[in-house]
Write a structure and sequence with these properties.
This protein has nine helices and nine strands. It is of the alpha/beta class. The strands form three sheets. The protein has a five-stranded parallel beta sheet with strand order 2-1-6-5-7. Helix 8 packs across helix 9.
């Protein structure tokens, strides 16, 4: 899979996507992540990518020209399944969306800034708009990195124990059960006995029960979704 992220602040994105599981996935060639600097597609000598809003008002708007040229340059090299714009008013990101995006071959993610982007980019160039939650950040870089991270861990072969992504929260609309590690006893706070028995089927049953319990307590809405 290939993820191309267009941004005016590459340094914010490169850090989060250069560690741990995502770094290993990139090294193994399971995903190619490219960070494209929008200013490289500006044509004036100051490399401007924003301008005042028509109609007035505070805040700058990202202009269509550099974004159009950046997307066209990428599209001239290969086909893209989605051109995604990170936006607080987009569809709320969830595990289901991460699962479906992880099946795609090539995607572009555009991170916005300032007051946002010229609406014509959204109308004519963007195929999907994603929000990471009902709050407003200063830029789309962290949202883009979050989406890329969530997608990458779902690509087959990325997580060494392939099972482990399947047992993450929200897969099958259940939260993950509690996990424990050594020491089994600490300050009198003990690990549940069942986990120390080595009885795999009984441990599995216990984990499932705990996952349902946790979901009922913390996110009963997920179980309702399941019933729909
Ligand atoms: N004026 C815009 C609004 O009220 O919807 C907010 C613009 S925000 C300051 C700048 C950029 O940050 C947006 O273009 C978007 O790319 C990104 N952004 C901010 N919050 C986000 C969120 N919750 N989800 C996804 N992207 C977000």
């Amino acid at each position: 899979m290939r993820i191309d992220i267009i941004t005016v602040l590459p340094e914010i994105i490169s850090g989060p996507l250069d560690h741990s599981i995502v770094k290993r996935a990139r090294k193994k060639g399971l995903v190619e992540i490219n960070i494209i600097h929008l200013r490289d597609f500006a044509t004036d000598k100051h490399k401007n990518v924003d301008d005042y809003a028509f109609g007035g008002g505070a805040g700058m708007v990202m202009t269509i020209g550099p974004i159009f040229r950046a997307i066209e340059a990428l599209k001239s090299e290969r086909d893209y399944d989605e051109v995604i714009y990170m936006s607080p008013d987009g569809d709320k990101f969830d595990q289901k969306t991460a699962n479906s995006l992880s099946l795609l071959k090539n995607i572009i993610i555009l991170a916005g800034h300032y007051k946002g982007i010229d609406q014509r980019v959204r109308d004519y160039l963007i195929t999907k708009e994603i929000s990471i939650g009902d709050y407003v950040l200063s830029g789309g870089e962290l949202p883009a990195a979050i989406v890329a991270d969530a997608i990458v861990r779902l690509i087959p072969g990325v997580i060494s124990d392939e099972q482990s992504a399947l047992f993450d929260s929200f897969q099958d609309n259940l939260l993950a059960p509690p996990v424990y590690t050594r020491p089994a006893k600490f300050m009198g706070w003990n690990v549940p006995e069942i986990l120390l028995t080595g009885n795999a089927p009984e441990i599995e049953k216990w984990r499932h029960k705990q996952a349902v319990k946790r979901t009922l307590e913390n996110r009963p809405d997920l179980l309702e979704e399941d019933a729909e």
